[in-house]
Amino acid sequence: MQLERLQLELDGPVARVWLDRPDVRNAFDGLMVTELRRTLFDLGTVDGVRVIVLGGRGPAFCAGGDLQWMKAAVNFSRDENLREAQALADLFFTVYNSPKPIVARVHGAALGGGAGLVAACDVPVAALGTRFGFTEVRLGIVPAVISPYVIGKIGESAARELFLTGERFEAVRAAEIGLVRAAVPPEHLDAAVDGRVTELLQAGPRAVADAKALIREVAWRRVEDVQRYTVERIADLRVSPEGQEGMRAFLEKRKASWVP
């Protein structure tokens, strides 16, 4: 697919996806939502891709909804709003559900849906000074479709404050509440992202996908409800080719075949 709103760079096992609307701080419009969802879904099916890095060109990661897009939405019917919201929900679920780990390279600003995109990623790393905010209530709406991912990261307590006030906060606070995994000086952002990528490439590709599925299945459920599932997963993986290779490599004191 020809990309108008994104740039895609393939670097061996790493795919770098750049939001590419720097003139509007990478704000979402319908085309960007469609391109990003399709691109991330397709990358999830490519065997040679093991890690995805998601970043933004220009001064910000993603400033939320595009102003012109929002102006058009003011006159939408309920059915049109349902279709628009479903497209966004599909995007965030594609990020969250990707079998490939997604590292977010966050700088400048991540507001509204941009902050939701950060929350849906596996390992977000932010530059100090980045501004975050769930600003929807200040427009008389709510951060609905991003809420499962954000609350999963920051918990109910922080959500009760930040969803209700719509206030903006910086990267240090985002790290304290768990929205991002690290907050580093801007000049160290790329090195920090590359460090996360290097660590992820030490892990077996199937194991990473299965670990993500394990988290989705086990989170928020009672231990007794998932015990059989966890027993079956570890048994299956221990006898799989990747599990056998990883355990033998450990015992033989050598690198596993998937380690660069």
Notes on the structure:
With 260 residues, this protein is an alpha/beta fold. The chain folds into two domains: 6-200, 2-enoyl-CoA Hydratase, Chain A, domain 1, CATH 3.90.226; 205-251. Helices cover 49% and strands 15% of the residues. The chain has helices spanning 30-43, 67-73, 78-97, 113-120, 147-165, 171-176, 189-200, 205-218, 223-238, 241-251, and strands at 6-11, 14-19, 51-56, 102-106, 109-111, 123-127, 131-133, 168-170, 182-184. It is globular and about 60 Å long. The chain starts with 5 loop residues before the first strand and ends in a 9-residue tail after the last helix.
Keywords summarizing the entry:
260 residues, alpha/beta, 2-enoyl-CoA Hydratase, Chain A, domain 1, 2 domains, 3-stranded mixed sheet, 10 helices, 49% helix, globular
Blueprint of the fold:
Layout (H helix, E strand, L loop, with lengths): L5 E6 L2 E6 L10 H14 L7 E6 L10 H7 L4 H20 L4 E5 L2 E3 L1 H8 L2 E5 L3 E3 L13 H19 L2 E3 H6 L5 E3 L4 H12 L4 H14 L4 H16 L2 H11 L9
Parallel strand pairs: 2-3, 3-4, 4-6, 5-7, 6-9
Antiparallel strand pairs: 1-2, 7-8
Helix pairs in contact: 1-3, 4-5, 8-9
Question: Looking at the chains present, what oligomeric state does this protein adopt?
Answer: single chain
Number of distinct beta strands: 9
Shape-level CATH architecture of the largest domain: Alpha-Beta Complex
The helix fraction, in percent, is 40-55%
Number of spatially distinct domains: 2
Query: Using only CA atoms, what is the Rg?
Result: 19 Å
**Share in β-strands:** 15-25%
Q: Specify the biggest β-sheet.
A: 6 strands, mixed
> Which stretches of 5+ consecutive residues score pLDDT under 50?
none
Mean pLDDT: 95
CATH structural fold name of the largest domain: 2-enoyl-CoA Hydratase, Chain A, domain 1
